[in-house]
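Before the break, one more example. Copy the sequence into your notebook; we will annotate it together after we see the structure.
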Amino acid sequence: MTALFVHIVGRDLDTDLDRLNKLVARSIAVVGRTGGEILHTALHSGGLEVFAVFGLPGKKHADNARRAIIAALRLSNELDEPDLGLSAGISTGESFCGALGTIHRADYTVVGTAVNMASRLASVAAGRILVDQATAKETAGQIAFSGPWTLAVPGMRGGVVAFAPIAETVATIDTKSPFFSTGPPNSRHSTPMWSARAEDRPG
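Here is what the structure looks like once it is written out:
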């Protein structure tokens, strides 16, 4: 399973309910088109936090990590208002899903190492989309990255190796899939600095 945390910040965003709702609707649409599921949205540090997962029972794909990265890239590209900024963290690994609560009130949620790592990467992303080493390995040859960097992440002992996805590569395009278009990547993410080809896989 792959977890995705997105933080969107903007001028007076925490007090503009109409704008927040539009951003939530846009996030739901982008994540849904790429095969994921949004489990949680909330105000976070003056902006919007979105928690999405790829690979829930009944919605598993062989390329969950790729789909999460593409969702983050495309959501970033769709933020066309100049005061809006996006930071995101993506992590892949074992997680557990199910109902959390009582018979009177329960929420469907996902917990585990991947969820914790994605949340922590988002907290230090500072305007970037950051993925962990496991996600970079799973998308080798499909996504172009910059990095790697070893980052100090709160709550994690030692440094965490992270990469920043720049663009889908040609290998990513799946003309048979309803989730992906065959158009060129947005120019904001069109110049690969590091490509996770098989021979370049981290670790």
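Confidence is low (pLDDT under 50) at residues 170-203. The chain has four helices and ten strands. Try to locate both features in your own notes.
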